[in-house]
Write a structure and sequence with these properties.
By secondary structure, the protein is mostly helical. It has a two-stranded parallel ribbon with strand order 1-2. Helix 2 runs antiparallel to helix 11. It has a domain at 86-282: Farnesyl Diphosphate Synthase, CATH 1.10.600.10. It has helices spanning 6-10, 12-18, 23-44, 49-64, 71-83, 87-99, 110-131, 137-157, 159-164, 174-192, 200-221, 226-231, 239-255, 267-274, 279-282, and strands at 105-106, 167-168.
Amino acid sequence: MLTKNYLSLYAKSFNWAGFFLPKKTYEKCSALYDFCRTVDNLADEKNSLEIKKNNFLKFKSDFNSKNSMNPIIINMWKLIDEFQISLKIINDLFDGIETDLKEKVVFNNKKDLLVYSYRVAGTVGLMMAKILNVKNKDALKSAINLGIAMQLTNISRDVVEDKMNNRFYIKENINVIKSTIDLSNIFYDSSFWAIRQIPLSFRFSILVARRVYKRIGYKISKKNTFSEYEASKKIYVTKLEKIYETMMSITDLLKLNFINKNNYTIDKDLDLINEESFINERI
């Protein structure tokens, strides 16, 4: 049974960056993305809430029982065994998806936003780093930060679309959207220095993914009003912009050799996440 390559179908920015990975590593990252995307789709499919919950519980049960009839689950278990990925990370991801399995999702504070972003994306960043053979604990935490940054970018971009699905992660307000982009930039910045702890053959790809995705936030921040933001619909990075950011990633690669650890820390933000999921146990 063949599986779809969700990375090429849904994640154009990641797939672009994946071009710079060795083929076997790309295939393993693609298998991880297939799993995460499949879980995410369970909450986003066009079915009643009851059906979505049942499908989610069935998938979770199939995962825990290592259902040999599901190649996406089997491929994920191979990654778990090969790279010693903690099941706590997978369960955090499941908890994040379960957050969306409600009639209405409303976040009321920064903690809700960050915990959710860690669960649905920081976990993915951490698992991706493990597949890239990252061993340094600070670098693994930075991979979580990069995942959170990208999710905050997604949330800032998809306010209108999320409202249609009765999800209100942040308010429909241009200032709130821009402040969320500012928060994402703090997480992007905190992730940068530790990229030099990633094996050299994988480093450039991560720098490209980071820059291309950060570009989405830059374009959002240029909107002056919510009406202008709404009229622009889904903001994406053009191929020409991807080429530009790829070129700029070369300077980032060189810069990594001359920087020390970022002076700005996000310990208080991570403490909010640790209240729900102790990150050191996942690393």
